[in-house]
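#structure-requests
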Amino acid sequence: MSDHADDSATETFVAHRNLLFTVAYEMLGSAADAEDVLQEAWLRWVKVDVGQVRDQRAYLVRITTRLSLNRLRTMRRRREAYVGSWLPEPLLTTPDVAEDVELAESVSMALMIVLERLSPTERAVFVLREAFGIGYDEIAAAVGKSPAAVRQIAHRARQHVDARRPREVVSPSETRAALGAFQRAVETRDLQGLLDVLAPDVVLVGDGGGVKQAALRPITGAEKVVRMFFGGLGKVQGTLTGEPTVVNGNPALLVRLDGELDGVMAIRLENARITGLYYVRNPEKLTRIEAETPLTLR
């Protein structure tokens, strides 16, 4: 391959890198694995005669999707042995993503958890169609199915997701307000204040990965969640603080213990009350956020 061709291949890959990363991340729920997929995609891409590729974006999406599918099938077997509840690796996103309601919803912690219930092919089809609006013919080439089969898969996946996703679109300002009320109630040990911001059937999911302490199963019900929080806080040796941030396109908290990152708290909101709390403590899933968090916040 000539130097000019090398430059052209690099420019094309860089131009589409954000798209490819998001495709891989939404399919895998892991930023680390998404980066590995992109590295593999790049190694395959540089061996291609790019001058012969009619639609380079579609070609790159196809490579990334196939690599992600292969990795997802392997990860599914690995997750069967995971200790406790599994949550997606939290991803810091810019505030402008939160203002784009559709994009923010497509990478939200709540939706990523729903996507875990889909088969690998259903997940790939849903992500490519619903999040990126890619055509059925292009998706068919990426997943190795006919366009007619892809349409059926997309319909089935959409029905499954719609039955479990939040029933209303919530603005970033509403989410920030609820998250702020939650934080104040926890920090001031305001029992009633916490009950007021939690929905009666709120679900708390913690992910410690068997390394950090976390409930092995989801905790359901406002009173049980409140007891868990206040009971756990009484055992904490040190000072807990929360820093507002944007994770997976939605307001969230970076929780620090004596200045060190302890976890990331994301929420799901419906009817102005918190229906889902997702606390990621697994250190392996916090590496990227630690690296990207400005030193001034530490």
